[in-house]
Amino acid sequence: MKSQPFITVVLFLLSSLPLFGQEFYEVIDQQIEQSTTEAFAGQSTDSEFLRRIYLDLIGQIPTADEARKFLSNTAIDKRSLLIDQLLQDPRYTRRMTEFFNVMLMERRGEDPNWQLFLSSSFKNNVPWNQMVKQMVSPDTKEKNTRGAAYFLTKRLEKYGQNPTDFPGLARDIGRMFLGMDLACAQCHDHLFIDDYKQADFQGLFAFINNSFIRRDTDYPAIGMNPVKVKLEFNSVFAEGTFSTGPKLPGMDEIPVPEFVTGEEFSIPPNKDTKAPGIPKFNPLDYLARQLPTESNQSFNVNAVNRIWFLMMGRGIVQPLDLHHSDNPPSHPELLQLMGQQLSEHNYDIKWLIRQIALSKTYQRTGVVNPSVANAKHQQYRVYAEKPMSAEQLMWSMLTATGQLSHIPREPADSEPDTDQPLDDRIDQTLEGIRADFLAAYANPPREPETEFAPSVRGALFILNGPRVLSWLSPRPGNLAELLNQQADNYAETLYLSILSRKPTSEEAKQFNQYISSHSNQAKAIEQAIWALLASNEFSINH
Amino acid sequence: MSRSQTNHPLCKPGEHTLSRRQLLGTGAAGAISWGGLGGLINPLVADDMATREKQVLFIWIDGGMSQLESWDPKPNTQFGGPFRSIPTSIPGIHVSELMPKTSQIMHKLAVDRGVSTFDNSHSAGVPRINRGDPKDRGVIYPYFGSAVANLMGPGNSGLPPYVWVKPGSGGFKYQDAGFLGPKYGALAIGEGEPPPNILLPNNIDAQQNMERNALRTFANKQYSESRDTIFSDAQNFVFDTAQALMQRQTLFDEPDPKDVQRYGDTPLGRDMLIGRKMLEAGVRFVKVNSYGWDTHGDNFNAHASLMPRFDQAFTAVVEDLDERGLLDHVLVIAMSEFGRTPRINGHIGRDHWPEAWSIAMSGTGIKRGAIIGNTNDEGTWVTSEPHDIGHFFHTWFNALGIDSEHTEYINDGQPLPIANDDCSPIRELLS
User: Fold this and answer.
1) Which of A444, A458, A485, B150 has the smallest CB count inside 10 Å?
2) How far is the CA of B192 from the CAs of A480, B298, B333, in angstroms?
């Protein structure tokens, strides 16, 4: 394989590079800064950092009170204290659940068992290798984690008139856990990517092509038909027939054992309970053993690349699922080091997020000055803007407007809130709100959400949709009410509540004058709230 | 072999999906010139004929119209079916008796009866035809509408460049855009309904709307001053498009009853009428969709019912465009994914037949009255030079003033021909 010598060199370098008691975030900065001689932007302002870290770690902006408290805090270590505080916040679990759900399922659908798997995993900071193990070989006895099977079962569901998409599932295992999109190597060696061979795709395919969705459970569960022979395949380009057992790229092929007919099952199918048989040889067991392991470089590198993407808005390998020698990482050494460190830290996602958050690279300002104008994103010389997900926009708008406190807590308790009648056509439960935000901002199923893709649909939603407009009028404890009770200084409340910063004097003048000179002040307040919610500064994570 | 690869559902490698910078690069540049007009566009601008830009009306007949019951009748032959042929406004040229109105405007049309394509399945054939069957370069090519939206831009109407008028659901349909990215997808008008949230709520009047947007614009200016503007420009672009749509709510008004009578009180008539309004408003590419043409059973009764609806709506729109001087600016295309088998099956139906069928067109760049291509007496095979969809993409691009043989998309550094490079324009169809 072409990349082999290259990896060897890097590993050699790594072995001569001990950390010398450095914290890993210092290594990150060293690696980033030594990669170019050009200038870097300075540190972010406190409000820049505050908004960014809230959005990235707990999926929403801070409240005005939280912003005031942080901005007035003079402690030197207030940033690292905030990072640690947010990593312990229950909303960290929610944020990671939402992020990984979107990333792993790509808006294919929702399932409560899957949600439970994700949320209990992030709540308990379950190591990534263990989570992946559960996804590819779920244990039906574990209530909290068996929903992990949804990763497999949802992809085996038929949609439209398409046949069961086994190739798509094999492809997604490669994309999500190895950072390799082998789709084009299904029928032939990849035309442009020398590293991607047809045998790699077919080896992955052989792990799952005998699997099926179990119909005897009320939770997602995967069954496996006995695998009796190796998988045969032809190339549309090369002559001859080839065969493979289950095999991960760069690893040994798993031999397919032979069984006498009737002896394939350790537990035969049960006709009464409709429980499928348990075959003695289940390729998914081997996948769970081989895929999420320290020795699997691609697995480690893919994991850190996706966490880096979460924090930095792009991967060190970009696109995230095209890791190969002709699409080299922007910082190969850093990527290898991070992968090694993650496995040494027992695949502790929270540890890695914390290290990145503590780095100067993450805390750099997004404000562009002439010395960093036109800096390439992959140089990280200035902090690059990130798109906000439908969920981040939802939680942030709920927080900014103060509507959050008016949502019925439990579905059972979803009686209409009668503090003040809202437009009664609007379902103000979290489910109703979420459905609207997804319709306005989420990508269609099977489209990765890794790029900034603003849409007219989203613009019309905020311009005219009843959803957000219904949150702008005064209700107990909300932003509009607060502003209506004020006599001046509207701008400061507006900016701290919505943009998590104090207004400049020009901004203060503009907004204060607009509201105080308006013939209908209540209406002017609604307009001002709306304008900042609809602004680019609000809808971009910067 | 390579054909099946072209449309392989899995063959969409991410290296060809646009990088962030590319997605926004070209789009943002467009947004700067276009977005500046905001919601304040004067509707009259688009009606200025002197500066009118080229547009497309693409009529998609989903399921497969029978060429024998339409453009290429073979009465009194083994497979001809029960319908007669009638003379047209071009001496010596006949069409099926199911299109009497069309027969009278034949001199305004061009028809190629020598179409020969390859895929006879809906699932692969539809995308293949719509993408112009480019050679496999490992990317998903855009449908014609997305291609035109990208190559020609939105024009100065302020409206989205690609509007799809159809029965069923509306909304924002990304799927047609392929590697060009979601931005070049279609805005779909379903059941004649406007897109969601297009109406300004009752409790916000025009003055208030102006005020709140002025505040938003102020805030955006403050933010952009010290930022890379790529994201902001893209974001401003979608707001401007949204506001331009809001300015054109009349596009969704109840139609004039006289128009309804002329176009037909049918879904196709309704959608063709909306399509005409969209073209008049300056939309670059309008796709009008008719469903239900997959007549494997009872082909003749089905066509007896379907064809008059097409005949009426199609004739009305061509006549209207011509009357308004728009036919000199609008390329009109009417086509299916394939024709239907000459052989009549056991269910008195016709199956899929890509081997020999017809495509009709009119308007800008097209030679009116050019009826070209021939099939044999039974209509089973093309006897003239067969034309694949790749030839038509070349022809249409050239009709729109795009040199299809020397224009390329650049996708992540990879140059990609805009039409199949084994094909070339059909000169007999071009004016």
Assistant:
1) A485
2) 38, 29, 21
Q: Is the Cβ of A168 closer than 8 Å to some Cβ of chain B? A: yes
Of B293, B268, B267, which is closest to residue B57 (Cα–Cα)?
B268
A445 preceded by a cis bond (ω within 30 of 0): no
- What is the mean pLDDT of the segment spanning A123-152? 97
Mean pLDDT of chain B: 86
Alpha-carbon gap: B176 to the closest alpha carbon of chain A (Å):
13
Mutation pick from A159, A184, A306, A443 vs chain B, by most beta carbons of B within 10 Å, is: A184
The answer, for B161 touching chain A at a CB cutoff of 8 Å, is: no
A515 has a chain B CB within 8 A of its CB: no
Strands B162-166 and B285-290: parallel
Q: How far apart are CA A370 and CA A215, in angstroms?
A: 62
Q: Is the peptide bond before A319 cis (omega within 30 degrees of 0)?
A: yes
Q: Which of B12, B138, B198 sits opposite A460 (nearest CB)?
A: B198
- Taking the C-alpha atoms of residue B413 and residue A523, their distance in angstroms, rounded to an integer, is 50
Can you give the pLDDT at residue B51? Answer: 53
Chain B residues 291-310 with a CB less than 8 Å from chain A: none
Residues 32-71 of chain A whose Cβ lies under 8 A from any Cβ of chain B: none
**Domain spans of chain B?**
55-201+241-429
Q: Taking Cα atoms as reference points, which of B34, B22, B281 lies closest to residue B153?
A: B34
Q: Which pair of structure tokens corresponds to residue A101?
A: 């759900």
Give yes or no for residue A512 having a pLDDT over 60: yes
In the stretch 227-266 of chain A, residues with CB closer than 8 A to chain B read 236
- The span from the CA of A530 to the CA of A524, in Å, is 10
Disruptive mutation site among B228, B230, B249 for chain A (greatest number of A CBs within 10 Å): B228
Q: Does A453 touch chain B (CB under 8 A)?
A: yes
Chain B, residues 342-381, CB within 8 A of chain A, namely none
Is the CB of B202 inside 8 Å of chain A's CB atoms? Answer: no
DSSP state of A503: P
Q: Is the pLDDT of residue A13 over 80?
A: no
- Chain A residues 172-231 within an 8 A CB cutoff of chain B: 175, 181, 183-184, 186-187, 190-193
Output the pLDDT for position A195: 84
ipTM of the complex as predicted: 0.91
Half-sphere exposure of B389 (CA within 13 A, CB side): 26
Write out pLDDT tens, residues B110-161: 999 999 998 888 877 888 999 999 988 878 899 999 999 999 988 888 888 9
Q: Does domain B55-201+241-429 have CATH number 3.40.1440?
A: no
Closest by CA to A211, choosing from A161, A284, A154, A265, is A284
Flag if B208 and A461 touch (Cβ within 8 Å).
no
Mean pLDDT by 10 residues, chain B (431 residues): 33 31 30 27 38 90 97 96 97 98 98 94 86 88 96 87 90 81 83 86 92 97 88 85 86 91 96 96 96 93 97 98 96 97 94 96 98 97 97 98 93 88 96 94
pLDDT at B72: 98
Please name the residues in contact with A37: beta carbons below 8 A apart, sequence gap of 6 or more. Answer: none
pLDDT value at position B188? 86
Question: Interior CA angle at B281 toward B277 and B283, to 5°?
Answer: 95
Task: Please answer yes or no on whether A464 and B237 come within 8 Å at the CB atom.
Answer: no
Task: Give the containing element (helix H, strand E) for B286.
Answer: strand B285-290
B394 to chain A, minimum CA–CA distance in Å?
Answer: 26
Phi, psi torsion values for A196, nearest 5 degrees: -95, 110
Contact between chains at B19 and A465 (C-beta distance less than 8 A): no
What is the reported pLDDT for A451? 81
Among the listed residues A352, A395, A318, A420, the one whose alpha carbon sits nearest the alpha carbon of residue A90: A395
Residue with tokens 């007949």: B61
